[in-house]
Design brief:
Layout lengths: L2 H36 L23 E6 L4 E6 L3 E7 L4 E12 L7 E10 L12 H10 L7 H5 L9 E2 L5 E3 L24 H5 L3 E2 L5 E2 L11 H12 L18 H6 L4 E4 L22 E4 L11 E8 L5 E7 L4 E3 L14 H5 E6 L1
Antiparallel strand pairs: 1-2, 2-3, 3-4, 4-5, 6-7, 8-9, 10-15, 11-12, 11-15, 12-13, 13-14
């Protein structure tokens, strides 16, 4: 073998090794890309944005946009990303924040991975409110905050949730029941009594703004029915005004039907079709996480809507999920027993959906 051939062999080996390393690196990068694609996206909050109005569309700059159906203001970053949504006449705001996962393994395989943080503003939104000082102060405090929002609060009452106590040693959160068993009826679907409100769960009297005092029943301790659950999350914990009963004073009414028919908040989906059954809405695309959803599930309630829950958004399979307190699971759940907690498709609750409201 010539000296020239001997000198060429190391070069050939080097080229081969480099080619193998390059191929290995390419495969590693592609595998990592594939793995990352399967993971839920997480948005990192790096700063609290400065509020500004205008028509800026360059990357990283923020601008306000007005949308309709319903009328609302959207804060965007750059040409597409939504930072926050505010609906005219509603105190509920949806802010974009760090990704979170909500699940309930005891009752369902569904998992909701979301960047939506739902909070109540101190005042109802109106066009141009982004220029008002109350809003600037509120937004600076809460955008990017990981303090408990309405979703975090709501899941503090599902099965297995730990008990939390306030400074006066009153348990204000923890696994909640739906209500006591009906007399002379054994456990089973429909066997639990309704009418358990937040003060029943707490076990302490509560005086409403109109002077009426709600007195808890011992048998209903740690129990909240469907509307009682909504009143616990939005009212007692979120500080949305509460009425003592339907049609008495200002505030969120006592029952699902009272909430749906009341003037509080903004109607996102109206009841339509002939009474008493009404019709399922043709589209539910208007829904936003945090909206209250209302159902017609029982013919015995005549024309009244008889169930309510909190819309969560899509789960990891794309199903539109809601959370509510139900008899079948004996408390707050997004579970499957007695009908999956989905608004899409033709399931029990999907078929019973009738209206929605944004508080």
């Amino acid at each position: 073998m010539s000296a020239k051939s001997k000198r060429g062999r190391p070069v050939l080996h080097g080229v081969t090794v480099l080619a193998l390393l390059a191929g290995s690196a390419y495969l590693t990068v592609e595998l990592r890309k594939d793995e990352q694609a399967k993971l839920p996206a997480v948005q990192a909050i790096t700063d609290i944005p400065h509020l500004r109005s205008g028509s800026a569309r360059t990357a990283g700059e923020q601008h306000w946009e007005r949308l309709r159906n319903p009328d609302r203001s959207v804060l965007r970053i750059g040409i597409g990303g939504i930072l926050a949504t505010f609906t005219d006449g509603a105190r509920t705001a949806t802010l974009t924040g760090p990704s979170r996962t909500f699940d309930e393994p005891a009752n369902t395989l569904s998992r909701v991975v979301t960047e939506n943080w739902v909070r109540l503003m101190p005042e109802a939104w109106a066009k141009g409110a982004e220029k008002e000082q109350w809003f600037k102060d509120w937004f600076k405090e809460y955008y990017g905050s990981e303090r408990d929002d309405l979703f975090a609060i709501a899941f503090q009452y599902v099965e297995g949730a730990p008990v939390r106590k306030d400074d006066e040693d009153v348990p204000y959160a923890g696994d909640a029941h739906y209500g006591p068993l009906a007399p002379d009826v054994g456990p089973g679907e429909g066997a639990r009594l309704e009418e358990s409100d937040f003060y029943d769960y707490l076990g302490i009297p509560y005086t409403f703004p109109d002077g009426t005092t709600g007195k808890p029943e011992a048998a209903r301790y740690r129990a909240i029915d469907c509307s009682g659950f909504v009143r616990t999350v939005f009212g007692y914990r979120g500080r949305y005004p509460l009425a003592a009963a339907d049609g008495t004073g200002d505030g969120l009414p006592r029952t699902a039907n009272g909430m749906a028919r009341s003037a509080v908040g903004v109607d996102i989906i109206n009841v339509s079709g002939p009474a008493p059954r009404y019709e399922r809405p043709e589209s539910i695309s208007e829904l936003q996480p945090g909206d209250l959803v209302f159902f017609k599930t029982d013919a015995r309630t005549a024309s009244r809507l008889d169930h309510t829950g909190i819309y969560l958004g899509p789960d990891t399979d794309g199903n539109q999920m809601f959370l509510s307190s139900r008899k079948e699971v004996n408390g707050p759940t997004m579970g499957d027993e007695g009908g999956t907690s989905r608004l899409n498709g033709h399931g029990y609750y999907a078929s019973a959906l009738r209206s929605a409201k944004r508080l």
